[in-house]
Amino acid sequence: MNNNQMNNNHDAAEFDYVIVGAGSAGCVLANRLSADGKHSVLLLEAGPRDTNIWIHVPLGYGKLFKEKTVNWMYQTEPEPGLDGRQVFQPRGKVLGGSSSINGLLYVRGQHEDYDRWRQRGNIGWGFDDVLPYFKKAENQTRGADDYHGIGGPLSVSDWRHADPLSEAFVKAAVEAGIPFNPDFNGATQEGAGFFQTTTRRGRRASSAFSYLRPAKGRGNLHIETSALAQRLVFEGRRARAVEYRQNGALRTARARKEILVSSGAYNSPQLLQLSGVGPGDVLQRVGVPVHHESPAVGRYMQDHVCYDYIFKASQPSLNEDLYPWWGKLRVGLQYILTRKGPLSLSVNQGGGYFRSRPDLPRPNIQLYFSPLTYEKTPPGTKKLMRPDPYPGFITSVSPCRPTSRGHLQIVSPDPRAAPAIHPNYLSTDHDVAELLAGARFLCRLAAAPSLAGIIAEELKPGSAVRSDAERIADIRARAYSVFHPVGTCRMGQDNAQAVVDHRLRLHGLANRRCIDASIFPKVTSGNTNAPAMLVGEKGADLVLADAG
């Protein structure tokens, strides 16, 4: 692996580009910036290499959900809108970042999401602008068309296991009035169907697998793991170096051209604040000298919140495959021999997008379907997600564009201290009304013939919850994050309300960009991994264009 051995031996401590974070966007940057051989690139990752076997098994997601060796395992502060509960926030701490531990769904969002970004003054970020980057990244197993590409690094695949319950869900959604949609990433997102996943021949296609692995042999790319960034070092207004700690030693990497912070929606604003860039009152409170007042760092956080109906089924589900030891043995052998079967799946196969009111111009709620049920463990425990010993399935709703806004801030100058995360879930009447409308639809969905015939019992919320007031109370008691935090270093035109400009350069500072999901001006309508990789693709082009 020559100079990519991920050890401490550098030919030099200076590089053209230093990338902080080897996640969904960071691995894309490392590949694209090193591709022509003209630039030396250092990629720093706080976590280890992606050698954990469960990273590469799609349904291994459940094994990694609370695996601290590859997961930051953050918790929110007590959330007033969720009955004061703390909400678990898994984030990838490994090569590939959250793309190595997520649910694998490939969802770009709605065309209008990006057009709204452009309308807010972010030139070059409309859907017509970003579609070529989605296509460039993609190796679509269905082939190329107006919306999809082939030959890119990222494999996008259909599910590889016939699941009767997921098929019944899609039929029920059509019966409930949602049209069938064979492609959520095509002309429209609206409809019900089956999600595509970032998998390749039954294996997870993380950003590390898709982008970093093909680039590791390049002599101009240096990769350092277990390298926790401490702070950025500035000379005046120019970012010149990154201090990081590795194997107990404090090291410095200088950037001749630019430092690219790509540590995600939590760790990117954390690093900026540790470096003295952020809201001055927050920094002064914890004893960090203010280098550059940037009020929006860590602010305007958005996330998707989700609510479930859980059913016991009258016909087999994946629980029977994954709960007993003999079922685990059988599906394990099936996967090893064929790369097929339940282990080749995401936790969600069926899904969709619908309008909760006919007067809405576009879908406002996302549907999920899981052909298994499992015990949800309390915050702070290390217990794994464990399937139930009876057949069951879950239907879920998640409003696409929440209006609640949260924030994140450091609580200590110590980079090892987790930031305080305040998502502020369900803090607006709009968000409560949207989730309530989604809950009502789940009742309608359960009554559709294709699902009603296979429901043995409604486990949660149960027959005691039927009025709107009871539903809202249950929503506050059980709703949870689907782990799509964005916006904490958002893109916009001015320093007061945004952190970076439309070229992802930090307002008021030179030689530094933020390139990851933290820059989203507003959350996209659905899962955020594909849009995060888009930011990496477009961000790399912006960096190279400015380099001349």
Helices and strands, with pairings:
Layout: E1 14-20, H1 26-34, E2 41-44, H2 53-56, H3 61-64, E3 74-75, E4 88-89, H4 111-119, H5 127-137, E5 138-140, E6 154-156, H6 164-175, E7 191-194, E8 199-200, E9 203-204, H7 207-212, E10 221-224, E11 227-235, E12 238-246, E13 249-261, H8 264-274, E14 277-278, H9 280-285, E15 292-293, E16 305-313, H10 319-322, H11 325-338, E17 350-354, E18 365-370, E19 374-375, E20 386-387, E21 392-399, E22 407-409, E23 420-422, H12 429-447, H13 449-452, E24 455-460, H14 468-478, E25 480-481, E26 512-514, H15 529-547
Notes on the protein architecture:
- This protein has about 550 residues and is an alpha/beta fold.
- It has a domain at about 160-195 and about 305-400 and about 425-480: 2-Layer Sandwich (Cholesterol Oxidase, domain 2), CATH 3.30.410.
- The protein is built from 15 helices and 26 strands.
- Strands 1, 2, 10, 11, 12, 13 and 26 form a seven-stranded mixed sheet that branches.
- A hairpin with a 2-residue loop joins strand 8 and strand 9 (about 205).
- The radius of gyration is 22 Å and the shape is globular.
Condensed summary:
This protein is of the alpha/beta class. Helices cover 26% and strands 21% of the residues. Helix 1 links the parallel strand 1 (14-20) and strand 2.
Q: Share of helix among residues? A: 25-40%
CATH class of the domain at 160-194 and 305-399 and 426-478: Alpha Beta
- From the spread of the alpha carbons, the general shape counts as globular
Give the low-confidence spans: 1-12
Mean pLDDT: 94
- Quantity of strands, as a count: 26
**Major beta sheet, specifics?**
7 strands, mixed
Number of helices: 15
CATH architecture field of the domain at 160-194 and 305-399 and 426-478 = 2-Layer Sandwich
Q: Could you please say which CATH topology of the domain at 160-194 and 305-399 and 426-478 applies here? A: Cholesterol Oxidase, domain 2
Q: What value does the Rg take, in angstroms? A: 22 Å
